[in-house]
TrEMBL record:
It comes from the Eukaryota. It holds the Pfam family Exo_endo_phos. Keywords: Nucleotidyltransferase, RNA-directed DNA polymerase, Transferase. Residues 485-761 form the Reverse transcriptase domain. Coiled coil: none annotated. This is Reverse transcriptase. One of its GO terms (molecular function) is RNA-directed DNA polymerase activity.
Length: 870
């Protein structure tokens, strides 16, 4: 039976008044929870009548930790019809009990905590948590008001105790706990003042055993009510039954007879002669055939696995009483090899579902990949959505809210009120004739070979692995489709150009649809087509895009943008020159590009007519369905925008936004915007995709002209700048009336340090608290509980990937203290040595040839090498 519980945790800030007790009673009736933990009851004694009233007369059993005077106190309530509770233990800061779910028989340790507010007691509280850790193999859920944080982002100001944060993280790591993410709120407590301090004090942690037992549970916050803390509800959301869809499993390619089966299905005669109809029919028929074929294989594999284990056990028992014969010894060895092969199938399935790409399948066990699946599911589950009038809670309400949101800007836009004056932009034509040449088999095959094998599939259900392994079987039909596309016979391209949109939260506490990033999982054939166009276009991007834009162009780096903006900011500050820095927010950037504008732009840049027609066919035949917790919604016909997840979209987007810098430069050249003082005489702009920073002289005319240019550019292209969400930061403007200068421009006033491209941007030296979010991200990636389920090679690979990706980007651009680097190294060492079998030597001698084992260089040495190369 599926494990399910409904639990509420809340710091009620006292149950010593009838009004608060009534509020708790009503909340329990509304939530229908069967397990509750209340902190800060401020009660030294609780009788049976009060406990039953607080539990809404459904929760009939209780245990409590008395308050000390009017401080503290914890109350645990449960329904005896749902849970059997044993071994209640009262600690200095906690109450713990063994909870057994009567329906499923699953038992775990539940701990409710109330962390001390007094600073001198916080270290004692952390030691207390360490002592509560249960025996290995036992599930543990620990929740409550911890009254401390371990990440900088869990507080809305920089007043942080970094040493205590590190100690809290170390305890979480040592106890092998991970936090269950809070779905709809970023903070859980407020001091409720005008300039409020907001902190995430209330949390819910679990270990991997609990996570595996309750994989579908998610955490969300309710309104604070009479308290200043949010109630947290942990539950298993009941959505509609997901329709069963085909998803290709990459391990099928290893099963004997796989290619023969595909060949048999593919060679069956088709009822269609038109290439796109025929390929669509063959893909659908192959999906059905493979699903039926694998039913027997998977069920037989499980049967063989358990039968092999049973025989091995019998032989092991027999060996305790007699010597095994040579045939029995060989049989047991063969069965053990068979068990390993069958277990690897399950591990392969979980790896593909986890979407982990930076480690190999054999470098982690099945539990690791299973936990990654659970974490991704919790992070992406949408429990409720904010709409214009309240909240969408039911699946139907959420689906309608999402559909209305996307249909409103993905549909066909109205007429353009103005167009760009192309003649004034001095667009240089370049030779792009090769873009329109016929497609070759080698070109199609190259696009397929560059498709990731493990990425989530589109509506057709096939991954890149299928096309790579079965290329010789299926290539003729695919090549016929691309022959039709070359000849612009694209009437039925819509059959192969659908997409599923998944919503990924952009931030903690995502509430509205706009807080989610729509990623398109595109049909494999449309993806191959887009990849081919991108491979042709990519070599020309250096000539087509100005040097101010660094995104998606080989040889250009995101570091260049950050360092340019930082150096310009500090230069103006150092030279005492007044300046305004505008950080633009472009509304739904990828999703709002007008196609008529984009196609006209490509024509002006000299793109072949055939290539433009191919792009027009790819755009106009596209449709999408948004997946809400795995269930597809209504189909949306696209009328504008570029799909995020399409390999061609990034290149098209930077082409679409590039004229903005040309317009601003032209306005500066013509005197509509004044030139910046100093050695440079051109408009200072930095662009990384849609992240744009622009320096403007602090005059009313320049700001008004700049805002007008943004408005006219937005109406002509679809790339509308949301000035309300854009930021403006002043540099050396103390003697300037900014209210007058910024009149009519509703940009938010920002102070340094502000964030640009994920990094803090400051006028001077950064403080430790400014850098703490950087180290929080790194520490979260290398928590030691993850390493326990990984082989030595997997841990080594992950440490290297953590070192070489995001942290290198962050740390190469920033000056970091030796102490901070040592903290980072300490975290990585702890992760690396979390398991057994590690032969990697942690040594500063990066080039020491005497080391026989691999060497992972310290961060400081790695950064020195990167800076030397840069």
């Amino acid at each position: 039976m599926a494990q399910s519980l409904d639990l509420i945790s809340w710091n009620v800030r006292g149950l010593n008044s009838p009004a608060r007790c009534n509020a708790v009673h009503e909340l329990m009736l509304d939530t229908k929870c069967t397990l509750a933990c209340f902190q800060e009851t401020k009660l030294q004694s609780i009788d049976d009548g009060l406990a039953r009233f607080l539990g809404g007369y459904k929760l009939d059993k209780f245990a409590f930790k008395p308050a000390r005077g009017t401080r503290g106190g914890i109350l645990l309530l449960w329904s005896s019809g749902d849970f059997d509770v044993q071994e209640v233990r009262i600690g200095r800061f906690s109450i713990s009990a063994q909870i057994t779910d009567i329906r499923s028989g699953v038992t775990f340790l539940l701990t409710g905590v109330y962390g001390p507010t007094r600073h001198h007691l916080k270290d004692s509280f952390l030691r207390h948590i360490r002592r509560l850790r249960p025996s290995p193999g036992e599930g543990w859920l620990i929740l409550g008001d911890f009254n401390m944080i371990y990440r900088a982002r869990d507080k809305n100001n920089s007043n942080l105790n970094l040493a205590r944060m590190r100690r809290f993280r170390a305890v979480i790591d040592r106890c092998e706990l991970h936090e269950i993410p809070l779905q709809n709120r970023k903070f859980t407590w407020s001091n409720e003042r005008r300039k409020a301090t907001l902190v995430k004090l209330d949390r819910c942690f679990c270990n991997e055993e609990w996570d595996l037992a309750f994989p579908h549970h998610v955490l969300h916050a309710l309104p604070t009510g009479p308290s200043d803390h949010c109630p947290l509800v942990l539950s298993n959301p009941q959505g509609p039954h997901r329709p069963r869809t085909f998803k290709f499993e990459n391990f099928w390619t290893r099963v004997p007879g796989f290619k023969d089966k595909v060949k048999d299905i593919w060679s069956q005669p088709s009822s269609h002669t038109e290439p796109m109809h025929r390929l669509n029919q063959k893909l659908q028929r192959t999906a059905v055939g493979l699903r039926d074929w694998t039913k027997g294989i998977c069920s037989e594999a499980k049967l063989q696995f358990h039968m092999a284990l049973n025989v091995i056990q019998r032989l092991d028992v027999a060996q305790e009483h007699r010597e095994l014969s040579p045939p029995e010894t060989r049989l047991r060895a063969a069965l053990k090899r068979k068990v390993l092969r069958l277990a690897s199938i399950e591990r392969a399935r979980k790896k593909q579902a986890s979407r982990v790409t930076h480690i190999r399948e054999g470098d982690a066990n099945t539990k690791f990949f299973h936990l990654k699946v659970n974490a991704r599911r919790r992070r992406n589950t949408i429990q409720r959505l904010k709409k214009d009038s309240g909240w969408a809670v039911t699946h139907g309400e959420k689906e309608s809210t999402i559909h209305d949101h996307f249909a409103s800007f993905m549909g066909r836009p109205g007429p353009r009120p103005n167009e760009l004056n192309w003649e004034t932009l001095d667009i240089t034509l370049i030779d792009l004739a090769t873009l329109g040449e016929p497609f070759t088999e080698e070109e199609v095959h190259r696009a397929i070979k560059e498709m990731p094998a493990d990425k989530a599939p589109g509506p057709d259900g096939f991954t890149g692995a299928f096309f790579k392994v079965c290329w010789e079987i299926i290539k003729d039909d695919i090549l016929l489709v691309f022959s039709s596309i070359y000849n612009l016979r694209c009437a039925h391209l819509n059959l192969l150009n659908s997409a599923n949109i998944v919503l990924i939260p952009k931030k903690d506490g995502a509430e509205s649809v706009s807080d989610y990033r729509p990623i398109s999982l595109i049909h494999s054939i449309a993806k191959i087509f887009a990849k081919m166009l991108a491979l042709r276009l990519r070599p020309h991007m250096h000539e087509l895009i100005s040097v101010n834009q660094s995104a998606f162009i080989k040889g250009r780096s995101i570091h260049d943008n950050y360092l340019f903006v930082r150096n310009m900011t500090r230069r103006y500050h150092r030279l005492r020159r007044a300046m305004l820095l505008f950080k633009l927010d472009i509304t739904k950037a990828f999703d709002s590009v007008r196609w008529d504008y984009l196609l006209a732009l490509l024509q002006r840049k000299g793109f072949p007519t055939r290539w433009i027609d191919w792009l027009g066919a790819l755009l106009s035949s596209s449709t999408s369905q948004v997946l809400l917790n795995g269930s597809p919604g209504q189909r949306i016909k696209h009328g504008r925008g570029l799909r995020q997840g399409d390999p061609l979209s990034p290149l098209l987007f930077i082409l679409a936004i590039d004229p903005l810098q040309r317009i601003l430069s032209k306005a500066t050249e013509l005197g509509a915007i004044s030139k910046l003082r100093g050695r440079t005489t051109r408009m200072q702009i930095s662009m990384y995709a849609d992240d744009a920073v622009i320096f403007i002289n602090p005059t009313q005319n320049d700001v008004a002209t700049f805002a007008n240019i943004l408005h006219r550019f937005g109406t002509a292209t679809g790339l509308v700048t949301n000035l309300q969400k854009s930021q403006v930061a002043a540099i050396r403007c103390g003697n300037i009336d900014l209210e007058e200068v910024l009149q009519g421009v509703p940009a938010k006033r920002a102070n340094f340090p502000l964030k640009y491209l994920g990094l803090p941007l400051a006028l001077g030296r950064l403080r430790k608290t400014d850098l703490q979010p950087v180290f929080d991200k790194i520490s979260g990636r290398v928590a030691s509980w993850r390493g326990k389920n990984m082989a030595a090679a997997g841990r080594t690979t992950l440490v290297k990937s953590v070192l070489s990706a995001q942290p290198i980007y962050l740390l190469t651009a920033l000056k970091v203290t030796k102490e901070s680097l040592e903290q980072l190294d300490k975290q990585r060492r702890r992760f690396l040595w979390a398991g057994t079998g590690v032969s990697v030597i942690w040594d500063r001698e990066y080039h020491d040839q005497r080391l026989e084992a691999d060497a992972i260089a310290h961060v400081a040495w790695h950064l020195r090498g990167r800076r030397a190369r840069g």
